[in-house]
Amino acid sequence: MIVDFQHHYSPRELFKDAETSGRQVVHYDQKGAPTFNAHSMLYDLDQHIAMMDLAGIDVAVLTSPHGMRADLEGARFINDRNREAEKAYPGRFVALGHANPLEGAPALREVARCADELGFPGVVIQSELKGKCVDDPAFEPFWAEAERRGLYVFIHPALGVPDVPMYDADDLGRAVGREFSLIAATIRLINGGVLDRHPGLRIHLAHLGGGIASLLGRIRGFQDKTFWATRESPRHGRLPQHDIDWYLANRMVSDTAGFCGDIRSVKNALTELPAGRIVFGSDYPQEIRSAEKVRDFVRDIRALGADGEAILAGNVPLLLAGARRAA
Fold first, then answer.
1. 3-323: which CATH topology?
2. Which of 177, 184, 179, 178 is nearest to 208 (CA)?
3. Residues 176-190: pLDDT tens digits?
4. Is the separation of the CB atoms in 97 and 120 below 8 Å?
5. How far apart are CA 317 and CA 319, in angstroms?
6. The pLDDT value given to residue 316
7. Where exactly are the structural domains of the chain?
8. Ramachandran category for residue 233: left, alpha or beta (phi over 0 → left; psi -120 to 50 → alpha)
9. For the segment 75-97, what is each residue's pLDDT rounded down to a tens digit?
10. Tell me, what's the pLDDT at 323?
11. What is the mean pLDDT of residues 17-25?
12. Which residues 6+ apart lie within 8 Å of 267 measured at CB?
């Protein structure tokens, strides 16, 4: 059974008239940086099913770009509509919950509702929120609640573009800035002790961990706090209980989305990341919007042999234990 672990959907009510006219609308932030592409494919679930059938994908895990940025009321609306999508297409969609971890007790109640009432297997958050990193103490109640409820946490790159002058051209905020945010979040989860404090917490990293494989040699080197003379620094001398590779091989799962269906990026990641900790993700219908391109991406991953079969289907229980919802 092939599961697409990064598949985006937002209810039609959240789109403006121009965005439902069949053409694509690009959103820009207050500084003129592109942040989001809105188009009808995001809410047309019949089109999603047609793509899945062509590509041979059995189940898609739904998350909403609108929901990742929503307030509590908006998150509740999207969570309810995600549950409706599951019911409307039995066995084809599994939804994740949306709740801003920084909204306190009400957000934790929504996390609990996602688990207990809606039956979602996980929740999605961004790699940074309101200037706070995922190892900030403000996130601690959220991590504890996710662990207690048995929910896996899908960490998607931050959707806002960092306010960095270097990113003010060439769409660099989305092209590389988001991935750097995801890599930093991965390192901070490890060095900040989040995974050590919560041994039952399961983490799903988007985009092959932001492409972390290409930087792992450098990251490992900077874990030598004595060599770099940072051991005495409270912020820069932090170390976890195990080395970084242990967490990547035992506590974290990453997906193949985020590289526009380019199999070369998956092959590069496999030089550092174990195939047994990677799941399939397409990023449909954002970075990939053609059903044929998703089909070809699945074909290319299958051509990797045993590693490809693990990515497409074998590793599904890491996040969907026993594939209970899909079954």
1. TIM Barrel (3.20.20)
2. 179
3. 999 999 999 999 999
4. yes
5. 5
6. 98
7. 3-323
8. beta
9. 999 999 999 999 999 999 999 99
10. 45
11. 84
12. 304
